[in-house]
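Give me structure tokens for this 85-residue protein.
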Amino acid sequence: TNSLPGFRQSVQALCAYDVRDRMAQAQVPGLFVAGESDGVLPKTMQQMVADLKSDSELKLVPKAGHLPMLENATAFTAVVNEYLH
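Here you go.
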């Protein structure tokens, strides 16, 4: 139900969203989660983990693409729960 101008603005906002400089200063551990079939995103996130000075990790959700929390909710929930416990 989104309008084309609204969608265009959303995409432009995401394209300009770059927090890598702030992430490099992170002092806390982090969890990156991606669907294993999400194109280049797993590789990009792995580089982010490597660039961080804090204790961070990447977990890939099997049988999922760009929306792992929907495409494989059980596996996604297990990844997050494991990290939080």
